[in-house]
Write a structure and sequence with these properties.
CATH topology of the largest domain in chain B: H-NOX domain
Helix content of chain B: 40-55%
CATH superfamily of the largest domain in chain A: Reverse transcriptase/Diguanylate cyclase domain
Strand content of chain B: 15-25%
Helix content of chain A: 40-55%
CATH class of the largest domain in chain B: Alpha Beta
Largest sheet of chain A: 6 strands, antiparallel
Shape of chain A: rod-shaped
Order of helices and strands of chain B: HHHHHHHEEHEE
Distance between the termini of chain B: 26 Å
Number of strands of chain A: 13
CATH class of the largest domain in chain A: Alpha Beta
Oligomer: heterodimer
Structural class of chain A: alpha+beta
Radius of gyration of chain A: 40 Å
Strand order of the largest sheet of chain B: 1-2-4-3
Distance between the termini of chain A: 98 Å
Number of domains of chain A: 3
Number of helices of chain A: 13
CATH architecture of the largest domain in chain A: 2-Layer Sandwich
Strand content of chain A: 15-25%
Shape of chain B: globular
Chain lengths: 347, 203
């Protein structure tokens, strides 16, 4: 008997979650931590397989099966709540067996469920180090997450401050505002073209957004090719563009550029083997060098000229002039192939 | 210098003296920014400049301020996660003291690029210890003073601490450049201390 007592003493010291089974599979003694997990019910005397459910190896119903599992890792859990998952290993004895248990990955829940302290773990058990690591990792992750959130905010802010339209590579509206402000303060002649695509919505609707995006990129390329490096081309909205042509006030030269732009944009743009047909209407404001113009006013005038071009049947350009203000009636425009968006006044 | 250390200084100043004071300190240090990121690495000189500026701004010697930072790291509720990590060192204050030898390794487990000076605890007699901090982070000994004092409160222990300055200036000596702290443990269970629940994770 003293041999069995010695064994129990050793196990109590080394394996706080052991159970010692007799040859019928009943629990003869159990480690202090395991006993702590079920404070309201005696573990001693219970059948091991009544207390625990074996998930792996499966279908073990008696002591013989349990002993046959020696050498493999046992996955088990309590049959009653909290159904803490446990890992185990069984070592057969001449009569009975020892099963040593550990929490494995359920450690985090277990320390909370059972209010365990470091005294409940063997000094050689890495459980406390694992808990330490989980907390350290969480704290470090939290710091990293905060950094990422701030970086994301900074990225969004930077994007907002950027001057480029990401789809077409043209300038964006913000850049256009800067250039216009600079030119109006500086003085000197320049021209403003407000270009709006015709029938673009039809392309988007019938051929999809990818086709629409492709068309916008090709339109951007054409505009870059048809203008000088010193000119500013901005995508002001979905299919609206503003061209700022510096030191260019001559109406016939501007007319030539506008006509050529429209001609080139009317050439079908191929997308996945299918042609996309669009055109463009352009409103032009020629700003003489001595004009005292405000950007908002110029944009409004270009808008009115564009409206006149739309009104005149699209696919053409119109200059802003004093006549436009009085003669233009508000919005009636309905060509056979127009869609609602195309019929709406530009701007 | 690791951002975590800079961030700790920032949190300490903002919490103790207010945001405006911190702005003045970073301006005086010529940082060009006022927010340290915990997970980025900064020039060592930036930290030195901040500490110098802080010392000037508060009119207190740097050692005192560093000790206050150490205390802040353990006792401020914002820093609960750090206190818990330190409490993992042991169940008693003495166990905690002995766990300090592992502190740099534990810090590296948490944040792999955080290098803390090697710490070595010696027990001279019952309740008589000395902790030597290897060189690498000037003034770290003072921060440890604050941490040791606050952790003593945390465990409910009564200790007397003394910063002995730099132990040895002899070139080639094993303790050359080390800061040494004397620790006298008067009573292990002097007060109640704060509880440490393994399962309660810091929010």
């Amino acid at each position: 008997m003293s041999g069995a007592q010695d064994l129990t003493m050793v196990l109590d010291g080394l394996c706080p979650m052991y159970v010692l089974l007799d040859d019928t599979g009943h629990i003869r003694s159990a480690g202090p931590t395991l006993t702590k997990l079920r404070p309201d019910q005696p573990i001693i005397g219970r059948r091991f397989l009544e207390l625990f459910e074996l998930a792996r190896p499966r279908a073990i119903t008696n002591m013989e099966g349990l002993l046959a599992a020696a050498g493999s890792k046992l996955h088990l859990s309590f049959r009653d709540a909290p159904r803490t998952g446990l890992k185990g290993v069984i070592v057969p004895l001449p009569s009975g067996a020892v099963v040593n248990l550990s929490f494995g990955i359920s450690l985090l829940d277990a320390v909370q469920d059972y209010a365990l302290t470091s005294a409940d773990f063997s000094a050689t058990d890495l459980a406390i180090e694992l808990l330490y690591l989980v907390e350290a990792k969480s704290a470090a992750m939290e710091a990293s997450r905060k950094l990422n959130t701030r970086l994301q905010g900074a990225m969004i802010a930077a994007e907002e401050q950027a001057f480029t339209d990401t789809l077409t590579g043209l300038k964006n509206r913000r850049a256009m505002d800067h250039v216009l402000a600079r030119l109006t303060t500086r003085g000197g002649s320049f021209a403003l073209m407000h270009l709006d695509l015709d029938y673009f919505k039809a392309v988007n609707d019938t051929m999809g957004h990818a086709a629409g995006d492709h068309v916008l990129q090709q339109v951007a390329r054409v505009m870059v090719e048809e203008t000088r490096d010193s000119d500013t081309i901005a995508r002001a909205g979905g299919d609206e563009f503003v061209l700022i042509l510096d030191r260019l006030g001559d109406r016939s030269a501007l007319s030539g550029i506008a006509t050529r732009l429209i001609q080139r944009l009317e050439q079908p743009i191929s997308f996945e083997g299918k042609p996309c047909r669009i055109s463009a209407s352009i409103g032009i404001v020629a700003v003489p060098g001595d004009a005292d113009a405000q950007p908002a006013q110029l944009l409004h005038q270009a808008d009115q000229a564009l409206y006149a071009a739309k009104h005149a049947g699209r696919a053409c350009h119109r200059f802003f002039g004093p006549d436009l203000v009085s003669t233009l009636a508000p919005a009636v425009d309905a060509g056979p192939q127009t869609r609602s968006r195309d019929a709406a006044p530009p701007g | 210098m690791h951002g975590l250390i800079n961030r700790a200084i920032q949190s300490f100043v903002c919490t103790t003296y207010g945001q405006a004071r911190w702005q003045q300190v970073t301006a005086a240090a010529g940082l060009g920014f006022s927010e340290f990121e915990a997970m980025l690495i900064y020039e060592d000189s930036q930290t030195t400049r901040v500490l110098d500026a802080l010392s000037g701004e508060l009119g207190r010697p740097p050692g005192e301020i560093l000790e206050d930072i150490g205390t802040f790291l353990v006792s401020n509720p914002q820093m609960e996660a750090l206190r818990r990590l330190l409490r993992f060192g042991g169940v008693t204050y003495v166990e905690f003291l002995h766990s300090l030898d592992d502190l740099p390794d534990r810090a590296r487990l948490a944040v792999s690029d955080l290098d803390l000076p090697v710490l070595e605890l010696r027990e001279h007699a019952a309740g008589q210890f000395s902790l030597s901090c290897q060189p690498g982070l000037p003034g770290f000994g003072f921060v440890m003073m604050g941490i040791l004092r606050a952790m003593a409160d945390d465990y409910g222990a009564l200790v007397m601490l003394e910063h002995n300055g730099v132990a040895c200036t002899i070139p080639g000596c094993a303790t050359q450049g080390c800061e040494v702290i004397s620790i006298t443990l008067i009573e292990t269970a002097f007060a109640e201390g704060r509880s440490f629940d393994l399962g309660a994770r810091a929010g």
